[in-house]
Amino acid sequence: MDLKNINISKSLIPENYLRLAIEAQKFKETEFRELIEKRKLPKNGWSDSHIEELVRQLSALDSNNLPKKVGVGEREARIACSLVARRHYNFGHGVGRSGDLLEAQPKAAGSTLMVNLTNYLLLDLIHEMGVRSCRCCFLAPLATAGLIPVIIEPQLNDNGSMSTNLEAFAQKVTDIGTENILCLCTTTSCFAPRQCDDIVEVSKLAAQHSLPHLVNNAYGLHSAYLTHQLEQAQRLGRLDLFVQSTDKNLLVPVGGAIIAGFDEQLVRSVAKAYPGRASSTQTLDVFMTLLSLGRMGYMRLVKERKENFEYLLARLHGFAKIHSEQVIESKCNPISLALSLKQFRNAGFEEITKFGSMLYTRGVSGARVVAVGDDRKIEGYEFLNWGTHHSRTEYAYLTIAAGLGITKVEIDNFFVKLHECWEAFLKRLKK
Amino acid sequence: MDLKNINISKSLIPENYLRLAIEAQKFKETEFRELIEKRKLPKNGWSDSHIEELVRQLSALDSNNLPKKVGVGEREARIACSLVARRHYNFGHGVGRSGDLLEAQPKAAGSTLMVNLTNYLLLDLIHEMGVRSCRCCFLAPLATAGLIPVIIEPQLNDNGSMSTNLEAFAQKVTDIGTENILCLCTTTSCFAPRQCDDIVEVSKLAAQHSLPHLVNNAYGLHSAYLTHQLEQAQRLGRLDLFVQSTDKNLLVPVGGAIIAGFDEQLVRSVAKAYPGRASSTQTLDVFMTLLSLGRMGYMRLVKERKENFEYLLARLHGFAKIHSEQVIESKCNPISLALSLKQFRNAGFEEITKFGSMLYTRGVSGARVVAVGDDRKIEGYEFLNWGTHHSRTEYAYLTIAAGLGITKVEIDNFFVKLHECWEAFLKRLKK
Amino acid sequence: MDLKNINISKSLIPENYLRLAIEAQKFKETEFRELIEKRKLPKNGWSDSHIEELVRQLSALDSNNLPKKVGVGEREARIACSLVARRHYNFGHGVGRSGDLLEAQPKAAGSTLMVNLTNYLLLDLIHEMGVRSCRCCFLAPLATAGLIPVIIEPQLNDNGSMSTNLEAFAQKVTDIGTENILCLCTTTSCFAPRQCDDIVEVSKLAAQHSLPHLVNNAYGLHSAYLTHQLEQAQRLGRLDLFVQSTDKNLLVPVGGAIIAGFDEQLVRSVAKAYPGRASSTQTLDVFMTLLSLGRMGYMRLVKERKENFEYLLARLHGFAKIHSEQVIESKCNPISLALSLKQFRNAGFEEITKFGSMLYTRGVSGARVVAVGDDRKIEGYEFLNWGTHHSRTEYAYLTIAAGLGITKVEIDNFFVKLHECWEAFLKRLKK
Amino acid sequence: MDLKNINISKSLIPENYLRLAIEAQKFKETEFRELIEKRKLPKNGWSDSHIEELVRQLSALDSNNLPKKVGVGEREARIACSLVARRHYNFGHGVGRSGDLLEAQPKAAGSTLMVNLTNYLLLDLIHEMGVRSCRCCFLAPLATAGLIPVIIEPQLNDNGSMSTNLEAFAQKVTDIGTENILCLCTTTSCFAPRQCDDIVEVSKLAAQHSLPHLVNNAYGLHSAYLTHQLEQAQRLGRLDLFVQSTDKNLLVPVGGAIIAGFDEQLVRSVAKAYPGRASSTQTLDVFMTLLSLGRMGYMRLVKERKENFEYLLARLHGFAKIHSEQVIESKCNPISLALSLKQFRNAGFEEITKFGSMLYTRGVSGARVVAVGDDRKIEGYEFLNWGTHHSRTEYAYLTIAAGLGITKVEIDNFFVKLHECWEAFLKRLKK
Prior knowledge:
Four copies of one chain form a homotetramer. In chain A, about 50% of the residues are buried. Chain A has helices spanning about 15-40, 50-60, 80-85, 110-130, 165-175, 200-210, 225-235, 245-250, 265-270, 280-320, 350-360, 410-430; strands at about 70, 135-140, 155, 160-165, 185, 215, 240-245, 255-260, 335-340, 365, 370, 375-380, 380-385, 395-400. Helices cover about 45% and strands about 10% of the residues of chain A. Chain A is of the alpha+beta class. In chain A, the strands form four sheets. A five-stranded mixed sheet of chain A has the order 2-8-7-6-5, sandwiched between helices. A three-stranded antiparallel sheet of chain A has the order 9-14-11. The radius of gyration of chain A is 26 Å and the shape is globular. Chains in contact: A-B, A-C, A-D, B-C, B-D, C-D. Chains A and D meet through helix 2, strand 1, helix 3, helix 8 and helix 10 of A and helix 2, strand 1, helix 3, helix 8 and helix 10 of D.
């Protein structure tokens, strides 16, 4: 509704008030126009009402929401339950066309616009977080599928931390032969005491052998340390694609992945391999969240998380000292931390996992007790001390993480409960 | 967001799809413009999403929702609880200024526009329902207040129905003296067996004595029969104002009244007498409801109600015949019906009201058992057989109504339950 | 849904997870039970989802929401527009019965419970804010109506502030005669430079003459200074009722008043005088807001406002010094402030009000420019310098207020804009 | 909130009203309990408020919504944007654990319950629709992925319809060798003039060669004709899995598939192959929709669609007769229809597709103009007359479908616009 184009009777509103109203509309229109024209994250987060207005206006452009539509196809985005229609803002057509997630959807002009805009905003965010060379990215409404993996065990360092075994990596490439390798896969973010893989060196290896290199950057987009590794890897070697979850990096419900790379054609070819049309719900979540946070809001979250990680680290060192345990140093892991549980050494595997249950029933989620002694065979591979990241892990440990959105209050409460459980568990062991 | 004014990259949306999107916007804009320019009820009801978009755009014009506002007054429509803000679409300023409900509100351009637009739509509806001479009306967020009443008992007809006692009316005017009378008050819609007052004749009496005449048209706006009486009364005599509830006539939550009349100055002077600024919530409900129904939707409700009344009347006659009771004829009451309860005559007042409780605990609401024998004194007046409309009522009766929105299924279920209770109550009486 | 009472197949959820789920339910149930049993403000605010769950459960108890209902009355709380039903959480019956706001509503068990609970929570809040002797209060969905006022001009102090002219008050009581006076009316919160009335002394006067005393405590409930006056006035003299707006004291949309007093019967008799059933929407807003804030949340708002008032006062003194104006001292007004506009003295009344418009078009709302020279006659009374609170006001001033919810950022922005306008207006005057 | 367990003061609600309120709660609790205990579609659809209450109660059981939670993991279902949290009812954890969609999710007891319940309700629906032998099914939040296809062109019948070329099928199996075939794939629902594959005969072939048989039942679940084929195929031959979209069969937004089969272990093994945790949003949509429709509501939709298909067929025959075209008979296709466009034969491929554009710009979506002459090579396969289903198609045709949810009004409007476009296009061709 553009008040400037409507002939409004003075009996509805006095002229001077109308002028103020038109002024109010102008600001909003400018905000919408700039977003669409610049295709960049807004500096400051938008209000809920602005976000919803844009989303509703986009949804109104999809054919299922046209006022005089006649639908005689087999897929017309009819929605039976009004609650479902409402929670999806009447978006029903999904994204892409069969077999290409990025192709425009003829019945869904608004969805198409939203999808493409979201991908531009994500690219802007990736740049802002430090991967300046990234050229293209898109949001896929699922996690990526696997192929036949060849696993290279990390190197177990003296202090208990684990890092990339580069020699083993290089040896394996030679052993198998580059012609039999689809790509090298590395991981940035993972549970301590495992560290971020040495993706720079693996990149060099990839370049040397002309092998594609895919990085699982699961929850690493919000860490400037990890995005710096990505940028360096791409500059000094070969890194083709890096993939990250939306839930952990953008605080949306589980279900989407951002697939990004340094060559537009390559990224687009991944989009083309998608099996069919996809849900647009993950896109909508990411779109609304990015507008809600804005650049400043996201950077504030990033900064707070880093500070909370330092705080968690300091408190964990304090706890370790008092209880004669140690924080297993994993200097290249800026998110997850591990505390040794050497004192529980005599308890068996089953018994030690109960320490985890004690924490969980007190409301602590995300803390994992990793015990030694669980040997498993999965798809032909044998894993000794499964879950510990290494076959030769000697003692149990507890991992915790300072993920995006964690608060200082949560950390304080965690140590209250950790203390309680620690005392209770020691008593229990003594019996 | 006006797509025509935005420079949209082809990487966001292909040009041919964009053209379709712009076309889609145009329809909506036309709908908004026509409403505001014509100030008439739309012919067909709007979709929920169109209604909400208009409401949100109006609310965005109020000063509390301006993006860069600075509020240093004592009333700034700040809303603490986000749920409250959400359910009011961020409207917070109420309507009117102290002491005049219809004055524009400087801090609330959007609210002002909505209030005035709603009053125009209501006037259009009143015309459509048959009161063509009505010149002005407004929505007040409360019921009207009383003064010192002089009560004129209706005339009890042979068949048990009650109608206006015109002679008593005229006599009372003479007895009291016109100089001591503020106005004559009549009622159109009320519980059967009372009929609609003979407002045409009372209007003539009012004209003859130059006395103002106020009609309580509580739930009569949706009955063409009653609105015809209003129009006739105004043409043939004097009728100043008629007042009706919004809940029963427009199916909104309880809390508003439409005050209407034939002289704009008179109606406006009532608006000026309102004690302070008022809530805009009732206006918002009425505004959304009128847009949702449209002229056609409201007329369909009116028609269905009339048909359901005929059906209820026929079924009630059937029930009366089988159980040897009678439908007390009140031919001038097109909404409410009464069924005699002569067979329960020997039960006392307390006992008979239990028949009503039986119905209520079976989910029947709105059916009232009116027993004789409750004599009360209220503000100096003595009422024999209080609740029956008449001091000489001889037997109990049951009143039911076919109000706007009633369904045939409800009527069918009612008779199932009435039958059950009737049998059970007779058994109980026999014990 | 009480998981403990449902026989849940293990194929739906493993037993150990079910135990955790049952634990989660227990906390919520306790919260609900304590609220209803204790009828006190919760210490900490509730989450949105807990508030909405309670509200929906209450609404489900009203007869219009019963699953198998049969409605054959003329008022059945049918709601035509689903958007309206949704925003009212399906509450439709309003509160009270005709003529008594506090009477239970038979068709609306849930509404009745909510209304009574809200009134208890408000009483608890009034106690918490300092009026410990208050015995009863209720929320009315409108402002209070007026009677024939006798106006007693305040005393104009040397520094430009205005306070209660107690002598004139006492003299007027003697002149008119107590038998001709319904009650004494005083005001606590009002625009500076007027101060809070000396309600303690007026209370003594009221006690001495056995006259009822009503205090308009418009936006004074959130000021401990003003509530202390109320408590003292009641202890040392006679104070019957005090009335306050909900919008300014509880940050809800405009439209409700809290009527409170020290004698339960008196307060209830006011509720009985209400003309008809009323909207429940104001109650719902207050109920949700109180639960959302909790005691701690409200007290934090109160504290922040007081600090922001001090900050506003300090900045205003700074501004006054630089521009050779003065803050008109009104030490008994803890909310509103006035700045002299002596330099604009030569501009006429019309011209000076343009200074206010300049501020408003820059987004400043709530700042009022009060100029001398507007003489009016209202309902027989002559007001010289209308709007200035006094007939002998000598120069224009600007009033601003630090109301509940104001932020430091708003104050800072205000001074930026005040400075801009000041410079621009002085230039304009020089032309 | 269980009113029976709360000690409620009579000052909050009179005892007799409280009894009614408790009665009202009981009905709702029964509905919830029966759903969870019986795990069957409710007979009648639930009201929106009952659906939302259940959904919210389930969501409250997930760990991210626990009131006193401490989250120190890397995935804690924190949601940044309150609009996103709201539209997902605070569900954030997704479904399944890495690599198994059906495994219970420890942090999400409520989600787990919802997922399993939804799968039971879907199984009940599949039974109700006629596939009585189906043993297990689950909802996957994406479409299924493809493998290397071997395409068997359908047989082109004399009347222009196309059906399964069984001989070619059998020949191909022999040619390739069963050891080189993963499974046989057939399709039930597709664009006319292609018919439903003869899945019964292909099933016999599959049984004979011990080959798995997968049916793409895209939008066939709502057709009793097609589900009957499925049931027969399974009884008389071998049919392992059948897969269908949720959007077209259940009227939810695009994005989910129901994977169903006759052997529980087989279906579960598909769930285990899912690459990672998945979004729960498609489950939530389906869950709410099934409760909203109930068995009766769904069956009403099915019946209406069938009637509308008959109506569309009759009208299309009428149109064909008048314009000397023919409805291409495809008696085994109960959803989609084709109209020959022989008169446009002289127009080229590009030109004919414009007829489709004309319809689309008039608001007709879903009607496809299929022209001959588009030869393509996709992944090594050559397709002559791509899009027409057959290399030897001789003339263009128009396909339309009567999908679930279509209305008679849409069909009527379609023929108005078809007529308009037909006349306009003929004129254009003559130029």
